[in-house]
Amino acid sequence: MRYLIVAICMLLALPLGAVQPDEVLDDPVLEQRARGLSKGLRCLVCQNESIDESDASLARDLRILLRERLLQGDTDEQAITFIVDRYGEYVLLRPTVTGSNWLLWAAGPLMLCLAGGVGFAYLRGREKASEQSIDALSDVEKSRLAELLNDE
Amino acid sequence: MARSILRTILSRMITELGHFALILAFLIAIVQAVVPLIGAHKQWYGWMAVAEPAAKMQFLFTGFAFAALTYAFVTSDFSLRLVWLNSHSAKPMLYKISGVWGNHEGSMLLWVLILTLFGACAAWFGGNLPPTLRARVLAVQSAVAVAFFAFIIFTSNPFLRLAVPPFDGQDLNPLLQDPGLAFHPPFLYLGYVGLSMAFSFAVAALLEGRVDAAWARWVRPWTLAAWIFLSIGIGLGSWWAYYELGWGGFWFWDPVENASFMPWLLAAALLHSAIVVEKRESLKSWTILLAILAFGFSLIGTFIVRSGLLTSVHAFANDPERGVFILMILGFFTGGALILFAMRASAMEAKGVFGVVSRESALVANNVLLAVACFVVFVGTLWPMFAEMFWDRKLSVGPPFFNMAFTPFMILLGVILPVGSTLAWKRGQIGRAAYQMRFVFALAVALALLVWVMQTGRSLMGPIGLFLGAWIVFGASLDIWMRAQRKWDRLLRLPRADWGKAVAHGGLGVTMFGIAGLMAWQVEDIRIAEVDTPFIVGGFELELKGVDRVQGPNYISTMGRVILRKDGTEIAVLNPEKRNYPVAQMPTTEAAIDYRFLRDVYVVIGDPQEGGGWTLRTYIKPLANWIWAGVLLMALGGFLSLSDRRFRVGAGASKRRTRTVAAE
To answer: Domain A2-91 is classified in which CATH homologous superfamily?
Structure first.
């Protein structure tokens, strides 16, 4: 707990506020691209923030670095690759679909197919089943159930 | 002098009694977890009867322990280590009280207090349950309590003393000193822990070997209550993040947020599947499984928050020993219940017969989508851990992933909701249901198109969200209108459950509306604002009039005065603040927000600039309030449904009920 507070203090005691006015590029299109890209890059010293939201000075450095790359004519991919080459894929808030990560991206659709399939099979089963008499209950239980259910 | 000594002795005594009460509650819980279970197995009524008084005593003793800890916080008794670490004598009273649960140990005590409260409620209102089921439910509930009592007493005891009491405390984390956050944890815990009731009912039903309509009717109000509290808790947390963290985000897909969101999704699924069990005696084993999983995810949430395994802004205690303990609790209860489920589930066969197109199927689709959405959140949250463990990759999974992978399921859910909720039971006709909805559909499409034309060139998210919101809200209205057979006078006489359904569904639509609006049409402005120099942001004129230093109760504030004008007339004075809490050595930002029905104006003050002027951040946030209004509506819908007459059967007030019927 103490460490956490100390860590937060260190983060927040630095110049406050995410994107600073002096960072903003003059070209609005370029700035727009920079903002979009920086929303997908993680602030390395923060808990779970993008460099676009972070107050940390390291995030500011990264924002400025990103803008420098864009000013030098990098495409979005080139700029991102430049940063990933230096800081590792840890900076990407949106994991790439490479290697084992395809499992992460496919988890939802695969599960949907599986659950949808099982659900549909169940529904087909219910459609074909014949109505059973409720004989698992004793007479006392039946009347109690009826009493409960009829009370609407 | 003598009086103050007396008072000190009294307060020490109360604390010691609290500690003692906690240990007593632990012992009672052990008895309650064992004796009624054996009694139910052997049909010994005397043994089963132990459960009820034990549950009530357990709650009273835990309540006393909690009250004693609260007393120590209120009187700033710094001889308690916990109070010293998390409180300060100059702190406002509200935060002295909320400080009780603003830390790991105290929040665990609150957790177990709520757990015993639910147990006691089941004892108080469970008169209608068959005796063996009641005994088993209370025993399982108590078994969970045993685990958490042990966790508190052996790893996180809030009543530990300091040999030499310091003169003053170290203050509560200033971020937590906020009215929104003061009540966020209690609601969240009421939700998390409320799901333990569903779990206890599920395990008890597995032990009984039978699930029927009556069981579903008993379990549903507890789930509903838990879901309502969870909704309010999540809503409060999200609202707090919006106004406190300084850039107006409302959801960050942070591991701890996800930890509360997963049980919410599953509880929502459980609410719907229990309807099918109740009305149609089908989906029984799935409902049992959901009840187990919903509480399992609550435990996973607890684990995530308290183990420090995943990095998060919320991380409480990063103590591996505690993490292992909770992992053991999680493994024992979820694993045990799942094994029991595997052994017994086949005994629970479905009875109802229905077509593939029917209300039942729509509810199955609802469950599939909610459960898969929950699965996506689960995989995304734990993926960084898996990737590092198995493939040695250090990577992050952040909002861009969740927005892409999770949203489609919600869109799908929103699309089928209005049609599904009006389908007939047993055998419906999709054509008929769709035909009924044609005007609603046309209206929603027209709205979306209108907005799409007006916004030109922005993302499609706004129109899509708007369509979904309108489709759901109008669909819910049409649903209840048809239930009333299109007659005004019948509308008010409908059962409250019908109103609950319409209001809760409408709430979901409103929230989707708000999210879409906020994400698609937000306007942002970052600049150095000179004093007395107006500037324009998105049709509003703002002017910084000055910046003052203001002394608060336990902080110093740098407060800006910003005048907000629309069409030349002043509509608000905003006071964005930067606060510094000297004791905790920590600054916070307090955004100034002009709340309006259709949009918020959100102003944050930054640092003074060398050449004069201040950094000022202004956001126009369209429909922001709608997000939380929708959440409130969902909770309200839940309350309406909970207050429906037929649930009181489950609550056990059968005699009073007959009278109210006559009175109406």
So the answer is: Cytochrome C biogenesis protein (1.10.8.640)
